[in-house]
Each structure stands twice: as structure tokens, then as C-alpha cells.
Amino acid sequence: MDITLLVNVTARAWSLDILARIAEGTPCRQAPLIAATGAGRTAFAASLSHLMSLGLLERNPGHGHPLRPEFRLTQDGERIAPIAARIIGTVRNRPEAPLLRRSWTVPVLVVTAQPCFFGEIRQKLTPITDRALSQSLLKLETEKMVEREVDTTARPPRPSYRAVDLGSRIAQAVVA
Fold first, then answer.
1. Does residue 79 belong to any structural domain of this protein?
2. What's the rounded Cα separation, in Å, for the pair 22 and 93?
3. Within 10 Å of residue 158's Cβ, how many Cβ atoms?
4. 3-state SS, residue 28
């Protein structure tokens, strides 16, 4: 998956979960999807609208009541939903699952599948701010999903970051 698209999809908290649930066969109406994801109505509606604006979901014409519409994946959505299902499946029923709802978690893990310096990560994730990247790396390091290694032979010493354990499995789910 293109890293820019991944950044756009993960910009809303429940987007990956919605795509994953649809790929797994959850009925494509609002009530079953809310029940399956556990999202609040407002956050769910924002994520659903976001997916529609990205062209990954659309209303299914001729199906459902106007107040209870049915949705379907677009051609691009059908390509991305299985990837979302693999990502969500990697952390399902784990305490780290809510971390995937944070904007930069999955893109940072994908970029750090290979060891990278801070500047390289920032360059690959162009719209990210230094503060957002620092906070994401710190949180992922705390959760033991990213490992920080400092090269003390360089002047000045430079830390590099690499996805490990669960973080590596999530990155592989995207790339596979």
C-alpha cells in the first residue's frame, strides 16, 4: 500500500476498523458496524465520512432506508479492506489494539520496518510534524513495538528506530 494512502486512511480513528469489519463480512449498515467496532456514533460517522471522501466506501444505491443506508466498498476499497483486516487481526483482543486508532501509529511502524533515523522517517511521512513523530516514537517505544538504538560511534550519536515484535508484525501485514 502507498504510504500516502496509508497516512490518509489512518487519519481517522475508526477507519481501519470499519474497513476490516466490512472485509470480514459484517453487514454494511451503520448499526452493525458500530456494534462490531465499538466506536461512538460521532467518531464513527466522522470515520465513515472520511472513508467516503477518500473514495473507499460509497452508499449502495437502491439498498437500505434513506435514514439507515447501506454502504459498499469501491474498487479501491476492495483492494485496501483486506490489508486493514490483516492489520486489525494482528492486534485483535490485545491491549495494544487502541494504539492503532492513533493517527501516526501504523505509518510509523511501516516506515520503521527497516532501521531508520528520525529525519528519514520524517522525510517519508512528509506531513508529520517533529512533535507528532517524537510522541509516536516514544509511545511505540514504551509499548515495545519500536526499538531505539543509539550509534555511539557517530558524532554526534544518532538514534535509529526499528519496528520489533508486534510492531514488526503490523508492518508486515501492510507490506504482505
1. yes
2. 18
3. 14
4. coil
28-73 residue pLDDT tens: 888 888 998 888 999 999 999 999 999 999 888 776 666 667 888 9
Query: Could you report the per-residue pLDDT of 113-123, keeping only the tens digit for each?
Result: 999 999 999 99
Number of separate domains in the chain: 2
Element (H, E) at 72: strand 68-73
Residue 151 shares a structural domain with residue 114: yes
| Domain interval for residue 143 | 105-175
The residue among 57, 73, 94 that closes a domain is 94
Nearest to 35 by CA among 47, 44, 24: 44
DSSP 24: T
The DSSP symbol for 59 reads E
Q: How many CB atoms lie within 10 A of CB 162?
A: 16
**Residues 154, 80: Cα–Cα separation, whole Å:** 40
Query: Taking Cα atoms as reference points, which of 120, 125, 117, 127 lies closest to residue 161?
Result: 117
